[in-house]
Amino acid sequence: MDKKNVVHVKNLKKTYSKKGINRVEALKNLNLEVKEGEIFGLLGPNGAGKSTFINILGGSVIKSEGNVNVWGFDLDKSPRQVRASIGIVPQEVNVDPFFSPKKLLELQAGLYGVKKKDRITDTILKLVSLEKEANSYTRSLSGGMKRRLLVAKAMVHQPPIIILDEPTAGVDVELRKKLWENVRSLNNKGVTIILTTHYLEEAEKMCDRIGILSDGDLVALDTTKNLLNKIQTKIVNIITDKKVNINENTFKSLKINSNEKNKLCISYEKSKINIDQIINHLNAQNIKIFDISTDDGDLEDVFLRLTKN
């Protein structure tokens, strides 16, 4: 069954213009949809327009043109409902050091107009593994705990969509792992996640679909699997009993990266060569193969190919 689109963006443009300075097109003509219950990754280099897009959804930046619909609400007609449908976890860790996590969440819920009887503060603290620190001063929390507190703050009004803007920038590996466990458990409970990240490996592991922004334009939008399948280059390392007689004209698109006495490293386009052809070529020379390892490339290859001008 097809899942419904919970974010629908059509011809979205944002132009910044200052006196005496040329107009800057932060978003040129953005079209994308986010489906209910997915983890959607928005990738792109600095200045690609990711933060502008998130700030438009959050109401802190006014769009220049286009249509934005979130959870069935039109941004122009129902901005408050749009804001109520999303929780944004910002990049900057900015929490009041003199309040406890519990008090901060209670205050945040009050700002959103959540009645006392409807608040789920303890549940949220448990969800982000901060129940033991519920009544500590926020200033005594570690960096990772403060990050998780930001996720908790974004959840006080129980929005169906959570947006994480570079959630693990500057966070060590252990904390990153913990944060992703929290995000996964939220997603498993039905929350739709939109995240921007610089860590391509992270996007590859976490995201169902990925949009790649470059210079205000969406240069790719597909499932993570399909994007990875678009990588044509395959790298193969072969350990042999003697040197292989092979050159770049032997097969179409073949590139010899190195050819030492018992180690051959080649790359080629998957659509033009099959690994069996390489193995048959070696067998014809009575060469014994001790080991073969292949590298299909990763999201970084797609990203670089699509974002380099």
In short:
With 309 residues, the chain is an alpha/beta fold.
What features would you describe in this structure?
By secondary structure, the chain is of the alpha/beta class. It has 2 domains: 223 residues, Rossmann fold, CATH 3.40.50.300; 77 residues, 2-Layer Sandwich (Alpha-Beta Plaits). The chain is 30% helix and 29% strand. It contains 10 helices and 14 strands. It has a 6-stranded mixed β-sheet, with helices on both faces. A hairpin with a 7-residue loop joins β1 and β2. It is elongated. The mean pLDDT is 88.
Extended strand count: 14
Q: What is the strand content?
A: 25-35%
The major β-sheet equals:
6 strands, mixed
Determine the number of helices (DSSP H or I, runs of at least 4 residues): 10
Shape: elongated
Structural class by sheet pairing and helices? alpha/beta
| Uncertain ranges | none
Overall CATH architecture of the largest domain: 3-Layer(aba) Sandwich
Q: How much helicity do the residues have?
A: 25-40%
**CATH class annotation of the largest domain:** Alpha Beta
Q: Compute the CA-based radius of gyration.
A: 24 Å
Order of helices and strands: EEEHEEHEHHHEHEHEEHEEEHEH
Q: Per CATH, what is the topology of the largest domain?
A: Rossmann fold
Summarize this structure as a short list of keywords or feature phrases.
Rossmann fold; 29% strand; elongated; 309 residues; alpha/beta; 2 domains; 6-stranded mixed β-sheet; 4-stranded antiparallel β-sheet
